[in-house]
Structure formats: structure tokens, C-alpha cells
Amino acid sequence: MVGNYVEEHDLLRSILLLLVMSVGAVAAFRTLRLPPILGYLVVGAAMGMNGAEFIPESEGLAFMGEVGMVFLLFAIGLEFSMKQFMAMRNTIIGLGGLQVVISTLSGMALLSYFGASWQSALVAGGAMAMSSTAIVVKQLNDQAEMRAPHGQSALGILLFQDIAVVPFLVVIPLLAASGGNEIGNTSEFLFKVSSYALLFFVTLLVGHYTLRPLFQYIARAESLELFNITVLLVALTAAWITQSLGLSLALGAFLAGMLLSETEYKHQIESEIRPFRDILMGLFFITVGTKLDLGVLSSLWLPVLLLVLGLTIGKGLLIGLLTRLFSKSNSSSLRTGLVLGQGGEFGFALLALALNNNVMSSGEAQTTLAAIVISMAISPLIIRYNERITTVLLADTYTHQQFKDAAEVSEAVNEVQDHVILCGYRRMGQNIAHFLQEQGVSYLALDLDPSIVEKTWEAGDPVHYADATRPEILIAAGLLRARMVVITVVDIEVAKRIIEAIRLKREDIPVLVRTRDERHLEALERLGATSVLPETLEATLMITQRIVEQLGFSPDEVFQMTEKIRTDSYRSLHSYYHGDQEKPQQGNKAAFLHTFTLQDNDFGVGKRISELKLERFAVNIKALRRGDIRGEQPSPDILLQSGDVLVLEGGKSDSFREVENALKTGGKTTKTSATPVITVPDSN
């Protein structure tokens, strides 16, 4: 009993220590704009038995790390989309398949040269064939390059890498079962592989016909607790089944996630498992980091250096060359290679699985583990400057390609003038084009979705596959002779880059930008947008307009009312009364409204509004109601009276407590009971 208590106490102490160190490390790495994964790996390497030895080897901690790997694979499975796979099947299967096979064989040959066993070299080669989905997708989204040709090619390769993990998850336990023989009994090995393939197919079939009805039944119970328990049950049961069959826990979790990704509950499941996933994945990467022995790397510097060069340069060039087979552009091919020239989190999962199954020794894993970590640390910098690197390396070729793309657009539209340029041709862009066409206004649209461009081009719409963030493309689209530019893209970073490109070439053209809400309104206006149209606020105006028209107001009065709001950048619509359960989104300009009634003995009675200096609390008086009369934006010289109701406006709900105290006592601490506050229902 005492021994168990001591062991549990040590485990709890280790977890607390890891959490404290992880908070500091992840915060530091985010500040440096490096992936948080590296922070976890550094914590593990520094605090483990190969470092400061603050974290003893523990079966409990190792098991939690395995569960973290289960959730990593479950989350990746959830992100897998069969529809997306079919839409990009040529890129995924052709390009992705060639990349994984050639990268694996290349890594295997290099490690075999340094004396690794073929089993170990196979696993390490597969680990290095994988790239980091977390780093690549986040960085490309931040740089508004996800929908660019190199972003789409990178996405296709990453999708195949996700799928390619599955055979490795099957083969690694089989390699362990072969006992290190030269593949053991070949016929027995093939029989096992065939059996597992059949079980894999049966699992997919059963899951397809049982999981959706199960979650439909659970959803009808309207219990979030029951829903969460069911998600955990499905993920862990699938992991247990595959482990019982002699395979890995992670394989079952991936299959469960992949099956659930095709249900209507995918997004809810993603939301609910995020807390478990993030914490346990962090522990998994920490346990991987504990296996990294920094002390032995000095003797392995040459193979580590060669592997790092192989991952960043060799793998990058290989992907660039393979992408060129599927693309006509040298520049986008090279940029795809630069983006994917690193190891990834799946590599850690494969190495951890190989170590747990004794397919690799700890010494054999050190070189690969160190190379993947270093390549991931370098990768964000390479991705950030992938365009500049391409410009330098390809020089005239890259410039020629840019002008060639622009020339193709220019040739097709050289007779169009006095037109509207639509940047983005999805639903809103197509609706706008429809209305422009009805009014006889010529337009031209630019989009980077090849399926949309192909279909609309066949239908006769003037839509071109082109990147609207590039100034030369906009010039080719007739920017200098256009009447207006309308930006309908959803990605706000892409919209910002388009505005910058427009203003670089033309200052006077009207630029209208559509956004989902008002969060980015000021930023877009500062960049040069003539009008920013937030969908949520415009919907409010449209509904209000219809209401006042039905009430009998003249069209001129309605027009003046709505235009006044738009001219004022929707300022009067930014603030509203929030309910108890409602929290404004991060970065949203929406402010809080709050009411306060002055009592006889309050400090504010008899004072002018200007004397109260409420601006120090970042709060202003939006309106004042005295009796049945309400005045908007009251004068600072008004003397306040007992019974006045003040409508306060501020960006934070917490500020109103300080304002109430200032109105009651002048800012002094008081022990009197709180004055009742009038509750006003949410205006929405």
C-alpha cells in the first residue's frame, strides 16, 4: 500500500512539474513564433532521465503518453474527409504516394549506410517521410497562402501522409512479432497482413453502419455529458480492439476518427475532445522528448547533420521535382518543396511506437529524433520566406512565370473596360455577378478554386484562375481601367493582401470588402478599403429597412437612416446588452451596454458629466433618461439628478463595477449594499 501511495505521489508530482514547465516553454515558443510542439519536446529532453532527471521513468506517465498518441491519431482521423480526398485524388494518390515511397526508401538507404538494421531504417525512413501538418497548415493560413497552388499541392501531400501512417501502424507490431528475423516466415507474415487487411475492411464496414445511428440516438438524449462519454468510449474501444489484435492503439483511434469524420457530428466531436486532446498530446510530445539524449548527439553530429540536410534540402527538392510532374509552374513546385521540407508529429508517433515495440533501440532512434526536431525548428522560417527563397533560386524563371500568368489573364480581358473586378467567386461573388449582369455592368472574377473556375468558364462566365493578391495579376485584369473592386473572399488575411496590392497600383478606385463581422473593419479601412460591409451588421440594417418601410416611412427617410449608420462605420450598432451567457468574440468590436440609476445620496448627483471623468474607465455615457425623456450622447455640461438613468457603454463588462463605485462614492471604498441596477433585455 505504501509503495503504491509513493508511486502515485511521484506521478502526481511529475505531472505538476511538467505542467509548470510546459506553460513556460509553450509561452516562450509562441513568443518566438515557433511551434508549441517544440516546447513540449524541449521540456521532455531537459527534465527527463537524459537531462536534469527531474522526471523519473514511470509506467503511468508512459501510458498517458500513449493515450496522448491515441488522441493525436483520433483528431487526425476526424480531419480526414473522403469528399476532399476524392476531389484531390490525383494529387493525393499520385503526388503524395510517390513522395512517401521515395522519401521512405531514401531515408532507409541513408540510415542503413550508417549501420542501422533494416527494420529500424524502414521505420525511421517512414517517420522522416512525414511532414508537420500542424506547422504547415497554420503557417500557410497565417500567410494567406493556403489556397495558392503551392498551398493546395502541400495539402494534398499532407493528406496522403496521414493515410500512409496506417500501414506503418500495422507493420511496426508485425516487425516486432517477427523477432528480428529476416522478415521471419514470409508466408506467415503475408498471412498476418492479409488477415489484418480483412479485419480493417470489416471494421470500416461495421463502423460505417453503426456509429451514425449510435450518435443519432445519443444526440436525441440532449445530454452533453452522455455525448462526451460516448466519444471517449468509441475512441478508446477502437484503440483497445486493434491492440488486442496485436496492432497499435493509435491505429484503432485513427479508424474511429476517420469513420466519425463522415457524420454530421464531426464538428461537435472536435470541439468536445479538444481539451483532452491538447493536454494529452502535450504529454505525449513530452514523453517523446524524454527519449532524446542530448549527451550522445555530440558523437552523432555527422549523421544528424546529414539527416537534417536530407529533410530540409533533399526532401524539399524531391517534393519540388515530383510536384513539377503534376504542375506546369516551376515556382509553385519549388515552393511546395520548401513548405514540406521538415519532419512532423506523425514521425514522433511512429518512432514512439517502434521504441515501445522494441523494433528500434534507443540509440538508433536518437539520430532520427534529433533530425526531425531540428528540421521542425527551422521550418517556420523557411515557410515564412518561401516566396523570397524561390525568387532568389529561380530568379528570371520565377519572374517570367509571374508575367506569363499575368499575360494569360491580360490577353483574355484586353478589351474589357469600365468593369467591376470580383476577387473571389464563391456564393456571394456569383450572386453579385448575377446582379451586375442583369444591370448590364461588365465584370471579371478571379479565384483560386480550379473546380469553380472550370465549371464557370464552361458556362461562359468571365472567371479566371489567378491569385488576386499579386499586383501584376490585378493589372492584367484591367485594374487601371476598372470602375470598382469587390473583395468577397472569406479569409481576412487574403483580403488584406488584395487591398495592399490594389493600393500599390491604384489609389483612387473604390474597393468594397465583405467580412463576416465587424472585428476587422478598422484594419481593412486603414489599409485602404473604401467600404467594409460586415454581414452581421448589414443583415441588421436590411431587416430594419424592411420594418420601417412597412411602417410607412418614405424611401428617402429610410435611405438617410441607413446611410447615416454606414457613414458612421456602424458605430451605433457596435454596442448592445449582452446576456449572462453571452461573451463577445475575441477581437470583436462589439461593446457592452449597461444601465445605472442614480440615487439621492450618490456622489454623481449634482455633478456635471465632465466632472466624473468616466473616460478613465474606458466607459462613456451613451444616453441619459430623465423621466420619460431620453437623450442620446448627452452634453458633458449636463447636471445629473437623482433618478437619472445612465446608459453606459464600454468594451469590458468588468469596468461597470468601477464606474458604479465612482458614481456612488466618487471612487472611495464603500460598505453599503449595492444599488439595484435596471436590467434591460438583450436587443437582439
Automatic annotation (TrEMBL):
Protein keywords: Antiport, Ion transport, Membrane, Potassium, Potassium transport, Transmembrane, Transmembrane helix, Transport
Main subcellular localisation: membrane
UniProt-listed SUPFAM superfamilies: NAD(P)-binding Rossmann-fold domains, TrkA C-terminal domain-like
A Pfam family hit: TrkA_N
Domain spans labelled RCK N-terminal: 417-534
Domain RCK C-terminal, chain residue ranges per copy: 580-665
Membrane topology field: Multi-pass membrane protein
Localization terms from the record: Membrane
Protein's name according to its UniProt entry: Cation:proton antiporter
InterPro entries reported for this sequence: Cation/H_exchanger_TM, Na+/solute_symporter_sf, NAD(P)-bd_dom_sf, RCK_C, RCK_C_sf, RCK_N
Coiled-coil stretches: none
Regions crossing the membrane: 12-30, 37-55, 61-80, 92-114, 120-137, 157-177, 189-211, 223-241, 300-322, 334-355, 367-385
